[in-house]
TrEMBL record:
<dbReference type="GO" id="GO:0005829">
    <property type="term" value="C:cytosol"/>
</dbReference>
<dbReference type="GO" id="GO:0004360">
    <property type="term" value="F:glutamine-fructose-6-phosphate transaminase (isomerizing) activity"/>
</dbReference>
<dbReference type="GO" id="GO:0006487">
    <property type="term" value="P:protein N-linked glycosylation"/>
</dbReference>
<feature type="domain" description="SIS">
    <location>
        <begin position="215"/>
        <end position="356"/>
    </location>
</feature>
<dbReference type="GO" id="GO:0005975">
    <property type="term" value="P:carbohydrate metabolic process"/>
</dbReference>
<dbReference type="GO" id="GO:0006047">
    <property type="term" value="P:UDP-N-acetylglucosamine metabolic process"/>
</dbReference>
<dbReference type="GO" id="GO:0006002">
    <property type="term" value="P:fructose 6-phosphate metabolic process"/>
</dbReference>
<feature type="active site" description="For Fru-6P isomerization activity">
    <location>
        <position position="361"/>
    </location>
</feature>
<keyword id="KW-0963">Cytoplasm</keyword>
<protein>
    <recommendedName>
        <fullName>Glutamine--fructose-6-phosphate aminotransferase [isomerizing]</fullName>
        <ecNumber>2.6.1.16</ecNumber>
    </recommendedName>
</protein>
<keyword id="KW-0032">Aminotransferase</keyword>
<comment type="function">
    <text>Catalyzes the first step in hexosamine metabolism, converting fructose-6P into glucosamine-6P using glutamine as a nitrogen source.</text>
</comment>
<dbReference type="GO" id="GO:0097367">
    <property type="term" value="F:carbohydrate derivative binding"/>
</dbReference>
<keyword id="KW-0677">Repeat</keyword>
<feature type="domain" description="SIS">
    <location>
        <begin position="41"/>
        <end position="182"/>
    </location>
</feature>
<keyword id="KW-0315">Glutamine amidotransferase</keyword>
<comment type="subunit">
    <text>Homodimer.</text>
</comment>
Amino acid sequence: ELGPYRHFMQKEIHEQPRALADTIDAVINAGSFDASLFGANAEAVLSGITGIKILACGTSYYAGSTAKYWIESIAGLPCDVEIASEYRYRQAFADPRHLVVTISQSGETLDTMEALKYAKSLGHTHTLSICNVQESAIPRASELVCYTRAGAEIGVASTKAFTTQLAALFQLTVVLGKLHGKVNAEQEVDYLEQLRQLPGSVQHALNLEPQIAAWAERFATKANALFLGRGLHYPIALEGALKLKEITYIHAEAYPAGELKHGPLALVDEAMPVVVIAPNDSLLEKVKSNMQEVRARGGELFVFADQDSNFSASEGVHVIRTPRNVGVLSPIVHTIPVQMLAYHAALARGTDVDKPRNLAKSVTVE
Ligand code: M6R
């Protein structure tokens, strides 16, 4: 069932255009972002809430961290994101008008399930689950549900589940924006068009595989790596670092690029590869000056820039160009290269890509 692929992870990376197309299918077919995507009584629930609290673990937490940027800027609602295993053990403040959104590929992650139960015990009645497995424990315990349609994910390192979670969260954002008067009809058409183009843009990013595989050869010999991003792309830097750690066992950390000089810059020397996610957005100039700080210390830069970023390679600065800027959906497109970088670095190191040491696909214990 691997077809032309060497591992499930590689197959699942390549399935993303299809997985995304399936996940957005209902919205594209309806030609609008409708609350009914989240269940029959979703409109009443979603119009009454005044904020969002997202609870998740691992990669799913990074999907939530990306959604925070969308929800606050597009839907105009306050959003906080918390690691489920932290939330469940602290005395949290609960506002029952806030919607608790859990994100879990498997729907069985114990920490996320317990965090959901805890949120309910604190008085949260409105809960929504974003999940990839029909009828698993977390959606069954939730008021509203949105299933991603990634199909079964076998590789322990989550890939297509993550990007489809992002697509679902973007849909939730636009639905909330409409219900709360922040997204008008014209903007809705615009978001619809961006979503329609998403699978194609992801396919373009997949076509970069040979270039990324060449970079990965160099990564395979490194002991450490830094990942930088800003704004919407900071969570993607985190996801890139997690993928690299999980399957290559290379120590990797991610920072919002503006934090460099507050500490991590001390780590940068010729031996430290620095991956930068640098599409053309409002923070690009800031990212460029952060990159200069790295170069000045001899750090080698590996930059993912889109066609509009206006970057050129130079001594110590390697550039791979992702497709044209896709606006707010850019984090989804820029996930693809960091997945492929980790995958090919793992191949070069000869690790067990689909079953990394010490990890399980579904974490049903504490
Ligand atoms: O099934 P879940 O989405 O709840 O799983 C959460 C994490 O255990 C999971 O994302 C983990 O971080 C992956 N191995 C990441 O690749």
